[in-house]
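General statements about sequence and structure are easier to judge against a single worked case. For one protein, we set the task of working out the structure tokens from the amino acid sequence alone. This step matters because it turns folding into a mapping between discrete strings. The amino acid sequence and the backbone structure tokens for this protein are reproduced below.
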Amino acid sequence: MPKRQIGNVAMDNMNVEEGLAALERNLNSHKKTTVYFLNAHCYNIAQKDFEYRNIINQADFLLNDGIGIMLGARMFGVQLKENLNGTDFIPELLKLASEKRYTAYLLGAGNGVAGKAADKLRATIPGIRIVGSRSGYFSKKANEEIVREINQLAPDILIVGRGVPIQEKWIYDNKESLKATIILGVGAYIDFASGRIPRAPLFMRRLKMEWVYRLLLEPRRMWKRYLIGNILFFYYLMKNKI
């Protein structure tokens, strides 16, 4: 399936079923695959950070996350099929992993958070095989040890939640040495899965207003991202369109 250009970023356009089917094919064939998610904040970073933009443009799959990207895509004549935000898509992938007996490893968030996320996922997705978990805060010196630990467990799915663009750059730098088939950069998903950060009420998610809930929940941390960031996002879209 050809990628679609949203300015200077190349995205995949698929729905949940198509995305899961593509990843299952790659799991079955042991084809190493990188998966990233693009929201308005990520798009803004990609306009200033060439290395990050180059990495996501080389991704096997770059999936759209949020109403901003869906609106922005229309400016380039692209009608995205479905919102594929990681917080909803990854549980579906893990359900598939449970059914097919694939294994997963969680790398991300603060101390103990990935372990709590693993426990909650085991409780909510019967049969899920999470073989390991570790905090995403580590030094460059610890990198070799972490890669070695992951490779000893050889998970089919490696979920990396270290924040944008750190997680994408880490995956890019370590991809060839990692013994994992599907490697995803997932932002705050591990925090959500652990319950440390609550999801927005369902009605807000259906209205595609989850970003408003995040802003209300963490105003000091999120106001620049959502208030100033949204203005910048449409500025960059217009600039790229022109």
Notes: The CA atoms of residues 43 and 233 lie 7 Å apart. The longest helix spans residues 219-241. The domain at 4-241 is CATH 3.40.50.2300 (Rossmann fold). The longest strand covers residues 33-38.
